[in-house]
Amino acid sequence: MSTKGEQTREKILNEARLLFKQKGFGATTINDLLDASGTTKGNLYFHFSDKEAVVLEVLQREQQSFYRFIDQAFSGKSAAAGLDHFFHNALEKNRQSGFVGGCLFGNAALETSDTSPLFAGLVRDVFTEWIKKFEEKISSAQAAEQIRTDIPAGDLAEMVVATVEGGIMQSRLQKSADPLKRSLETLRRVLGLKVNQ
Amino acid sequence: MSTKGEQTREKILNEARLLFKQKGFGATTINDLLDASGTTKGNLYFHFSDKEAVVLEVLQREQQSFYRFIDQAFSGKSAAAGLDHFFHNALEKNRQSGFVGGCLFGNAALETSDTSPLFAGLVRDVFTEWIKKFEEKISSAQAAEQIRTDIPAGDLAEMVVATVEGGIMQSRLQKSADPLKRSLETLRRVLGLKVNQ
Asked: Which of B21, B86, B187, B131 is nearest to A174 (CA)?
Protein backbone atom coordinates (compact mmCIF):
# COMPACT_ATOMS: atom_id res chain seq x y z
CA MET A 1 0.00 0.00 0.00
CA SER A 2 1.22 3.43 -0.84
CA THR A 3 1.39 6.26 1.64
CA LYS A 4 -0.54 9.49 1.20
CA GLY A 5 2.71 11.20 0.20
CA GLU A 6 3.33 8.61 -2.50
CA GLN A 7 -0.21 9.01 -3.77
CA THR A 8 0.23 12.79 -3.99
CA ARG A 9 3.49 12.31 -5.86
CA GLU A 10 1.82 9.93 -8.35
CA LYS A 11 -1.09 12.31 -8.81
CA ILE A 12 1.25 15.20 -9.62
CA LEU A 13 3.21 13.09 -12.14
CA ASN A 14 0.08 11.77 -13.86
CA GLU A 15 -1.51 15.20 -14.20
CA ALA A 16 1.81 16.70 -15.31
CA ARG A 17 2.11 14.10 -18.08
CA LEU A 18 -1.33 15.02 -19.43
CA LEU A 19 -0.63 18.75 -19.25
CA PHE A 20 2.78 18.38 -20.94
CA LYS A 21 1.13 16.39 -23.74
CA GLN A 22 -1.69 18.85 -24.32
CA LYS A 23 -0.24 22.26 -23.49
CA GLY A 24 3.44 21.53 -23.91
CA PHE A 25 6.29 21.60 -21.41
CA GLY A 26 7.02 25.29 -21.65
CA ALA A 27 3.45 26.52 -21.35
CA THR A 28 2.63 24.38 -18.30
CA THR A 29 3.18 26.39 -15.13
CA ILE A 30 3.59 25.28 -11.53
CA ASN A 31 0.12 26.74 -10.91
CA ASP A 32 -1.31 24.51 -13.66
CA LEU A 33 0.25 21.52 -11.90
CA LEU A 34 -1.22 22.59 -8.56
CA ASP A 35 -4.71 23.15 -10.02
CA ALA A 36 -4.76 19.84 -11.90
CA SER A 37 -3.46 17.74 -9.04
CA GLY A 38 -5.26 19.58 -6.23
CA THR A 39 -1.97 19.89 -4.37
CA THR A 40 -0.57 22.75 -2.33
CA LYS A 41 2.62 24.48 -3.37
CA GLY A 42 4.32 23.25 -0.19
CA ASN A 43 3.38 19.69 -1.02
CA LEU A 44 4.63 19.90 -4.60
CA TYR A 45 7.97 21.37 -3.56
CA PHE A 46 8.30 18.69 -0.90
CA HIS A 47 8.34 16.10 -3.70
CA PHE A 48 10.05 18.03 -6.51
CA SER A 49 12.73 20.72 -6.41
CA ASP A 50 11.27 22.56 -9.44
CA LYS A 51 9.29 22.10 -12.66
CA GLU A 52 12.34 20.65 -14.41
CA ALA A 53 12.44 17.82 -11.86
CA VAL A 54 8.81 17.01 -12.71
CA VAL A 55 9.56 17.11 -16.46
CA LEU A 56 12.57 14.83 -16.01
CA GLU A 57 10.68 12.20 -14.04
CA VAL A 58 7.71 12.28 -16.44
CA LEU A 59 10.09 11.76 -19.37
CA GLN A 60 12.01 8.98 -17.60
CA ARG A 61 8.79 7.11 -16.80
CA GLU A 62 7.51 7.59 -20.34
CA GLN A 63 10.82 6.23 -21.63
CA GLN A 64 10.44 3.01 -19.62
CA SER A 65 6.79 2.68 -20.59
CA PHE A 66 7.64 3.26 -24.28
CA TYR A 67 10.40 0.63 -24.23
CA ARG A 68 7.87 -1.88 -22.86
CA PHE A 69 5.41 -0.81 -25.57
CA ILE A 70 8.03 -1.33 -28.29
CA ASP A 71 8.83 -4.85 -27.11
CA GLN A 72 5.17 -5.85 -26.98
CA ALA A 73 4.18 -4.06 -30.17
CA PHE A 74 6.86 -5.82 -32.25
CA SER A 75 5.68 -9.30 -31.29
CA GLY A 76 4.58 -11.54 -34.14
CA LYS A 77 5.08 -14.96 -35.71
CA SER A 78 7.56 -13.51 -38.20
CA ALA A 79 9.64 -10.34 -38.48
CA ALA A 80 7.20 -8.98 -41.06
CA ALA A 81 4.25 -9.78 -38.79
CA GLY A 82 6.08 -7.97 -35.98
CA LEU A 83 6.50 -4.86 -38.14
CA ASP A 84 2.87 -5.00 -39.24
CA HIS A 85 1.83 -5.47 -35.62
CA PHE A 86 3.86 -2.45 -34.58
CA PHE A 87 2.18 -0.21 -37.17
CA HIS A 88 -1.21 -1.48 -36.04
CA ASN A 89 -0.43 -0.89 -32.35
CA ALA A 90 1.02 2.57 -32.94
CA LEU A 91 -2.22 3.57 -34.64
CA GLU A 92 -4.35 2.07 -31.86
CA LYS A 93 -2.27 3.67 -29.11
CA ASN A 94 -2.86 7.07 -30.69
CA ARG A 95 -6.50 6.36 -31.51
CA GLN A 96 -7.16 5.52 -27.86
CA SER A 97 -5.90 8.94 -26.81
CA GLY A 98 -8.35 10.54 -29.28
CA PHE A 99 -5.32 12.09 -31.01
CA VAL A 100 -4.99 14.48 -28.11
CA GLY A 101 -1.46 14.93 -26.85
CA GLY A 102 0.30 12.97 -29.58
CA CYS A 103 3.76 11.57 -28.93
CA LEU A 104 5.32 12.98 -25.77
CA PHE A 105 8.82 12.44 -27.19
CA GLY A 106 7.96 14.13 -30.47
CA ASN A 107 6.62 17.10 -28.52
CA ALA A 108 9.68 17.10 -26.28
CA ALA A 109 11.95 16.85 -29.31
CA LEU A 110 10.49 20.03 -30.77
CA GLU A 111 10.24 21.88 -27.48
CA THR A 112 13.51 20.98 -25.79
CA SER A 113 15.99 20.49 -28.67
CA ASP A 114 17.24 24.05 -28.54
CA THR A 115 16.75 24.89 -24.89
CA SER A 116 17.42 21.90 -22.65
CA PRO A 117 20.41 19.60 -23.30
CA LEU A 118 19.39 17.21 -20.49
CA PHE A 119 15.89 16.57 -21.83
CA ALA A 120 17.08 16.58 -25.44
CA GLY A 121 19.63 13.87 -24.54
CA LEU A 122 16.96 11.63 -23.04
CA VAL A 123 14.71 12.11 -26.08
CA ARG A 124 17.63 11.34 -28.43
CA ASP A 125 18.23 8.08 -26.53
CA VAL A 126 14.58 7.10 -27.00
CA PHE A 127 14.66 7.66 -30.75
CA THR A 128 18.03 5.94 -31.13
CA GLU A 129 16.70 2.88 -29.33
CA TRP A 130 13.47 2.88 -31.32
CA ILE A 131 15.30 3.15 -34.67
CA LYS A 132 17.65 0.33 -33.56
CA LYS A 133 14.71 -1.95 -32.78
CA PHE A 134 13.18 -1.17 -36.17
CA GLU A 135 16.50 -1.86 -37.89
CA GLU A 136 16.75 -5.28 -36.23
CA LYS A 137 13.21 -6.24 -37.26
CA ILE A 138 13.65 -4.95 -40.81
CA SER A 139 16.97 -6.76 -41.09
CA SER A 140 15.32 -10.04 -40.02
CA ALA A 141 12.45 -9.45 -42.45
CA GLN A 142 14.97 -8.79 -45.22
CA ALA A 143 16.78 -12.06 -44.45
CA ALA A 144 13.41 -13.83 -44.85
CA GLU A 145 12.61 -11.78 -47.98
CA GLN A 146 9.45 -10.41 -46.38
CA ILE A 147 10.42 -6.80 -47.14
CA ARG A 148 12.38 -4.98 -49.86
CA THR A 149 16.07 -5.81 -49.67
CA ASP A 150 17.53 -3.13 -51.97
CA ILE A 151 17.88 -0.48 -49.25
CA PRO A 152 19.89 -0.99 -46.01
CA ALA A 153 17.71 -1.82 -42.97
CA GLY A 154 19.14 1.13 -41.01
CA ASP A 155 18.12 3.63 -43.71
CA LEU A 156 14.62 2.20 -43.91
CA ALA A 157 14.33 2.20 -40.09
CA GLU A 158 15.26 5.87 -39.86
CA MET A 159 12.75 6.82 -42.53
CA VAL A 160 10.02 4.72 -40.91
CA VAL A 161 10.40 6.47 -37.54
CA ALA A 162 10.34 9.89 -39.24
CA THR A 163 7.16 8.92 -41.10
CA VAL A 164 5.43 7.60 -37.96
CA GLU A 165 6.27 10.78 -36.03
CA GLY A 166 5.13 13.01 -38.89
CA GLY A 167 1.97 10.92 -39.25
CA ILE A 168 1.14 11.31 -35.56
CA MET A 169 1.63 15.07 -35.96
CA GLN A 170 -0.80 15.20 -38.90
CA SER A 171 -3.41 13.02 -37.16
CA ARG A 172 -3.22 15.16 -34.07
CA LEU A 173 -3.68 18.30 -36.15
CA GLN A 174 -6.68 16.84 -38.01
CA LYS A 175 -8.04 15.13 -34.85
CA SER A 176 -8.54 12.03 -36.96
CA ALA A 177 -6.87 8.64 -37.27
CA ASP A 178 -6.91 8.92 -41.07
CA PRO A 179 -3.64 10.76 -41.81
CA LEU A 180 -1.56 8.38 -39.65
CA LYS A 181 -3.52 5.37 -40.90
CA ARG A 182 -2.99 6.30 -44.55
CA SER A 183 0.72 7.09 -44.03
CA LEU A 184 1.24 3.72 -42.33
CA GLU A 185 -0.61 1.94 -45.14
CA THR A 186 1.53 3.70 -47.76
CA LEU A 187 4.62 2.87 -45.70
CA ARG A 188 3.70 -0.85 -45.77
CA ARG A 189 3.43 -0.63 -49.55
CA VAL A 190 6.66 1.27 -50.24
CA LEU A 191 8.49 -1.13 -47.89
CA GLY A 192 7.05 -4.06 -49.85
CA LEU A 193 6.01 -5.63 -46.56
CA LYS A 194 4.71 -9.18 -47.07
CA VAL A 195 3.03 -10.32 -43.86
CA ASN A 196 1.46 -13.59 -44.99
CA GLN A 197 4.54 -15.43 -46.06
CA MET B 1 10.55 54.52 -45.92
CA SER B 2 9.02 53.01 -42.85
CA THR B 3 8.11 55.00 -39.77
CA LYS B 4 9.65 54.34 -36.38
CA GLY B 5 6.41 52.66 -35.33
CA GLU B 6 6.53 50.31 -38.30
CA GLN B 7 10.15 49.48 -37.56
CA THR B 8 9.25 48.64 -33.95
CA ARG B 9 6.41 46.45 -35.14
CA GLU B 10 8.74 44.60 -37.54
CA LYS B 11 11.36 44.16 -34.84
CA ILE B 12 8.80 42.63 -32.47
CA LEU B 13 7.52 40.23 -35.15
CA ASN B 14 11.02 39.14 -36.21
CA GLU B 15 12.18 38.50 -32.65
CA ALA B 16 8.90 36.76 -31.82
CA ARG B 17 9.35 34.40 -34.76
CA LEU B 18 12.81 33.38 -33.53
CA LEU B 19 11.61 32.91 -29.95
CA PHE B 20 8.58 30.88 -31.04
CA LYS B 21 10.86 28.61 -33.11
CA GLN B 22 13.38 28.06 -30.36
CA LYS B 23 11.41 28.17 -27.11
CA GLY B 24 7.95 27.41 -28.42
CA PHE B 25 4.79 29.49 -28.45
CA GLY B 26 3.63 28.61 -24.96
CA ALA B 27 6.93 29.17 -23.21
CA THR B 28 7.57 32.58 -24.79
CA THR B 29 6.31 35.32 -22.49
CA ILE B 30 5.51 38.96 -23.17
CA ASN B 31 8.63 39.81 -21.15
CA ASP B 32 10.73 37.62 -23.48
CA LEU B 33 9.32 39.58 -26.42
CA LEU B 34 10.13 42.90 -24.70
CA ASP B 35 13.69 41.82 -23.84
CA ALA B 36 14.43 40.48 -27.32
CA SER B 37 13.01 43.44 -29.20
CA GLY B 38 14.13 46.15 -26.78
CA THR B 39 10.58 47.51 -26.71
CA THR B 40 8.54 48.89 -23.85
CA LYS B 41 5.33 47.21 -22.75
CA GLY B 42 3.36 50.29 -23.79
CA ASN B 43 4.86 50.12 -27.26
CA LEU B 44 4.14 46.42 -27.70
CA TYR B 45 0.53 46.79 -26.61
CA PHE B 46 0.15 49.76 -28.95
CA HIS B 47 0.85 47.40 -31.86
CA PHE B 48 -0.65 44.14 -30.58
CA SER B 49 -3.63 43.48 -28.30
CA ASP B 50 -1.99 40.43 -26.70
CA LYS B 51 0.49 37.59 -27.27
CA GLU B 52 -2.06 35.70 -29.37
CA ALA B 53 -2.18 38.61 -31.82
CA VAL B 54 1.61 38.37 -32.20
CA VAL B 55 1.43 34.59 -32.70
CA LEU B 56 -1.30 34.97 -35.31
CA GLU B 57 0.59 37.53 -37.36
CA VAL B 58 3.86 35.55 -37.17
CA LEU B 59 2.02 32.44 -38.40
CA GLN B 60 0.23 34.35 -41.18
CA ARG B 61 3.51 35.82 -42.43
CA GLU B 62 5.22 32.44 -42.24
CA GLN B 63 2.34 30.95 -44.21
CA GLN B 64 2.82 33.44 -47.06
CA SER B 65 6.58 33.01 -46.97
CA PHE B 66 6.23 29.19 -47.00
CA TYR B 67 3.84 29.29 -49.98
CA ARG B 68 6.43 31.32 -51.88
CA PHE B 69 9.13 28.83 -50.82
CA ILE B 70 7.01 25.89 -52.08
CA ASP B 71 6.50 27.46 -55.50
CA GLN B 72 10.18 28.21 -55.93
CA ALA B 73 11.39 24.95 -54.44
CA PHE B 74 9.30 22.82 -56.81
CA SER B 75 10.74 24.43 -59.92
CA GLY B 76 12.52 22.12 -62.34
CA LYS B 77 12.70 21.00 -65.98
CA SER B 78 10.44 18.04 -65.25
CA ALA B 79 8.04 17.03 -62.47
CA ALA B 80 10.65 14.61 -61.12
CA ALA B 81 13.31 17.33 -61.18
CA GLY B 82 10.86 19.58 -59.29
CA LEU B 83 10.38 16.95 -56.60
CA ASP B 84 14.11 16.37 -56.34
CA HIS B 85 14.67 20.12 -56.18
CA PHE B 86 12.14 20.43 -53.38
CA PHE B 87 13.88 17.78 -51.27
CA HIS B 88 17.21 19.49 -51.88
CA ASN B 89 15.84 22.92 -50.94
CA ALA B 90 14.05 21.64 -47.84
CA LEU B 91 17.37 20.26 -46.60
CA GLU B 92 19.23 23.47 -47.40
CA LYS B 93 16.57 25.67 -45.78
CA ASN B 94 16.96 23.69 -42.56
CA ARG B 95 20.74 23.47 -42.83
CA GLN B 96 20.97 27.24 -43.09
CA SER B 97 19.15 27.59 -39.78
CA GLY B 98 21.70 25.24 -38.17
CA PHE B 99 18.78 22.96 -37.31
CA VAL B 100 17.73 25.40 -34.64
CA GLY B 101 14.02 26.09 -34.53
CA GLY B 102 12.94 23.50 -37.07
CA CYS B 103 9.65 23.91 -38.88
CA LEU B 104 7.47 26.59 -37.32
CA PHE B 105 4.31 24.85 -38.56
CA GLY B 106 5.40 21.48 -37.19
CA ASN B 107 6.07 23.13 -33.84
CA ALA B 108 2.74 24.95 -33.99
CA ALA B 109 0.98 21.71 -34.96
CA LEU B 110 2.24 20.01 -31.82
CA GLU B 111 1.76 22.99 -29.55
CA THR B 112 -1.58 24.35 -30.69
CA SER B 113 -3.53 21.27 -31.89
CA ASP B 114 -5.23 20.72 -28.57
CA THR B 115 -5.39 24.23 -27.21
CA SER B 116 -6.00 26.80 -29.95
CA PRO B 117 -8.53 26.13 -32.73
CA LEU B 118 -7.65 29.36 -34.56
CA PHE B 119 -3.92 28.59 -34.86
CA ALA B 120 -4.57 24.88 -35.49
CA GLY B 121 -6.86 25.85 -38.39
CA LEU B 122 -4.17 27.99 -40.00
CA VAL B 123 -1.59 25.23 -39.59
CA ARG B 124 -3.99 22.66 -41.08
CA ASP B 125 -4.45 24.94 -44.12
CA VAL B 126 -0.68 25.10 -44.61
CA PHE B 127 -0.27 21.32 -44.55
CA THR B 128 -3.32 20.77 -46.78
CA GLU B 129 -1.87 23.16 -49.36
CA TRP B 130 1.59 21.61 -49.15
CA ILE B 131 0.24 18.06 -49.58
CA LYS B 132 -1.89 19.25 -52.53
CA LYS B 133 1.19 20.74 -54.25
CA PHE B 134 3.10 17.49 -53.69
CA GLU B 135 0.17 15.49 -55.08
CA GLU B 136 0.11 17.60 -58.25
CA LYS B 137 3.84 17.18 -58.81
CA ILE B 138 3.78 13.44 -58.07
CA SER B 139 0.78 13.01 -60.36
CA SER B 140 2.65 14.75 -63.20
CA ALA B 141 5.75 12.66 -62.52
CA GLN B 142 3.60 9.51 -62.61
CA ALA B 143 2.14 10.52 -65.98
CA ALA B 144 5.71 10.81 -67.26
CA GLU B 145 6.70 7.55 -65.53
CA GLN B 146 9.39 9.33 -63.53
CA ILE B 147 8.10 7.93 -60.23
CA ARG B 148 6.33 4.74 -59.09
CA THR B 149 2.78 4.58 -60.42
CA ASP B 150 1.35 1.73 -58.30
CA ILE B 151 0.28 3.99 -55.39
CA PRO B 152 -2.09 6.98 -55.77
CA ALA B 153 -0.31 10.36 -55.86
CA GLY B 154 -2.36 11.66 -52.92
CA ASP B 155 -1.27 8.78 -50.67
CA LEU B 156 2.37 9.24 -51.61
CA ALA B 157 2.09 13.01 -51.06
CA GLU B 158 0.68 12.60 -47.57
CA MET B 159 3.42 10.13 -46.61
CA VAL B 160 6.13 12.37 -48.06
CA VAL B 161 5.05 15.37 -45.97
CA ALA B 162 4.92 13.20 -42.82
CA THR B 163 8.44 11.93 -43.55
CA VAL B 164 9.83 15.42 -44.19
CA GLU B 165 8.33 16.75 -40.94
CA GLY B 166 9.59 13.74 -38.95
CA GLY B 167 13.01 14.09 -40.58
CA ILE B 168 13.23 17.76 -39.61
CA MET B 169 12.33 16.76 -36.04
CA GLN B 170 15.12 14.17 -35.95
CA SER B 171 17.71 16.52 -37.46
CA ARG B 172 16.79 19.23 -35.00
CA LEU B 173 17.14 16.78 -32.14
CA GLN B 174 20.54 15.55 -33.36
CA LYS B 175 21.63 19.06 -34.43
CA SER B 176 22.83 17.51 -37.67
CA ALA B 177 21.67 17.50 -41.28
CA ASP B 178 22.23 13.74 -41.49
CA PRO B 179 18.88 12.34 -40.26
CA LEU B 180 16.85 14.55 -42.62
CA LYS B 181 19.33 14.01 -45.44
CA ARG B 182 19.21 10.22 -45.08
CA SER B 183 15.42 10.14 -44.78
CA LEU B 184 15.07 12.25 -47.94
CA GLU B 185 17.52 9.99 -49.78
CA THR B 186 15.58 6.88 -48.72
CA LEU B 187 12.36 8.64 -49.71
CA ARG B 188 13.74 9.24 -53.23
CA ARG B 189 14.53 5.55 -53.48
CA VAL B 190 11.22 4.18 -52.18
CA LEU B 191 9.39 6.60 -54.48
CA GLY B 192 11.43 5.29 -57.38
CA LEU B 193 12.19 8.89 -58.37
CA LYS B 194 13.98 9.07 -61.73
CA VAL B 195 15.33 12.59 -62.17
CA ASN B 196 17.43 12.16 -65.28
CA GLN B 197 14.81 11.00 -67.70
From this structure: B131
Distance CA A148, CA A8 (A): 51
- Buried b / exposed e over B139-178, threshold 16 CB at 10 Å, is bbbbeeebbbeebebbbbbbbbbbbbbbbbbbbbbbeebe
CATH code: domain A1-48 is 1.10.10.60
Q: Which of A110, A114, A173 sits opposite B123 (nearest CB)?
A: A173
**Does A123 contact B24 at a Cβ distance shorter than 8 Å?**
no
Say if the Cβ atoms of B159 and A186 lie within 8 Å. yes
Q: Which pTM was predicted?
A: 0.91
A52-191: CATH architecture: Orthogonal Bundle (1.10)
Supply angle C-alpha B13, B14, B15, rounded to 5: 95
- ipTM of the shown complex: 0.90
**Domain positions in chain A:** 1-48, 52-191
The answer to whether the beta carbons of residues A21 and A102 sit under 8 Å apart is: yes
pLDDT in tens, B39-55: 999 999 999 999 999 99
From the number of C-beta atoms within 10 Å of its C-beta (0-12, 13-18, 19+), residue B5 rates as exposed
CATH pick for B55-191 out of 1.10.357.10, 1.10.3720.10, 3.40.50.300, 1.10.472.10: 1.10.357.10
In angstroms, the Cα distances linking B160 to A53, A79, A107, B89, B141 are 37, 25, 20, 15, 14
Contact (CB<8Å) A162/B179: yes
Cα of first residue to Cα of last residue in chain B, in angstroms, is 49
